[in-house]
Amino acid sequence: MSLAVIVVSHLPLPLKDHLILPAHQPQQNRLLAVLPEAERGRLFPHLEQVPMKLGHVLYEPGVALQHVYFPADSIVSLLYVMENGASAEIAVVGKEGIVGISLFMGGETTPSRAVVQSAGYAYRLPAPLLKEEFGRSGAVQHLLLRYTQALLTQMAQTAVCNRHHSVEQQLCRWLLLSLDRLSDNNLTMTQELIANMLGVRREGVTEAAGKLQTAGLISYSRGKIIVLDRPRLEKKACECYAVVKTEFDRLLPDIMAN
pLDDT of 99-136, one tens digit each? Predict the structure, then answer.
């Protein structure tokens, strides 16, 4: 039986003001970690470590991207925002990925919003440098194209999940995907943000968590969720989590195995 702790807080996390900490290094991001030495030599000197504050918006729909972000121990949620302000998550990006794929895919902008879902740190790279490296048609291009295909699978599967599966199943998928993208088993965020991720009311999240607690899969009290049995949680989730995980493992075996 596995034990994971997810803390759901109503208060923002304090963040350290210093941008460079000895405990953090670019290799914490798995895409950066697998780059060949030549590519590291060209990109690493230009990486800037930045704090990722809970709820911080990295980019808005239609705004040209100035940087791409490689999360180290943070998670970023990609949200589609409706005209009435309602939103729903279309994908999550953590230590396995990069935020800002529209930059190297040629679109420059995107109709989605990128919001920090779990606080921590990331490494950002100026847009022109990534585009120049991508244009070399070498290891970086090959790696980012494979990652993009995996991310598109996650987006498609999330759309199917939101349409056909219960809030309880969506919550299971969301918990599992979030845990997979963290360096440890601790996640802190607001209940309102969880509801926004799933595109449901906050009461729906509370009800779904209550069902999981009754089933003995989690312990839920005063904003703190403890995952008591991950294997059973995976069985409780719909097939969407397994589809996404399988595709990431297939396309990025050297990354997801770490």
Answer: 999 999 888 888 899 999 888 999 999 999 999 999 99
- Cα–Cα distance, 52 to 67 (Å, whole number): 14
CB 207 within 8 A of CB 169: no
Tokens linked to 182: 């963290």
**Which DSSP helix (H) or strand (E) runs through 250?**
helix 239-251
CB 46 within 8 A of CB 153: no
Residue given tokens 């940087």 in the structure block:
67
Q: Which amino acid is at 131?
A: K
Q: What is the tens place of the pLDDT at every residue in 151-162? A: 999 999 998 888
The model carries a pTM of: 0.84
Query: Strands 48-52 and 120-126: what pairing?
Result: antiparallel
Tokens linked to 94: 């953590």
- Rounded to a whole number of angstroms, the distance between the first and last alpha carbons of the chain is 21
Contact between residue 198 and residue 162 where contact means Cβ atoms under 8 Å apart: yes
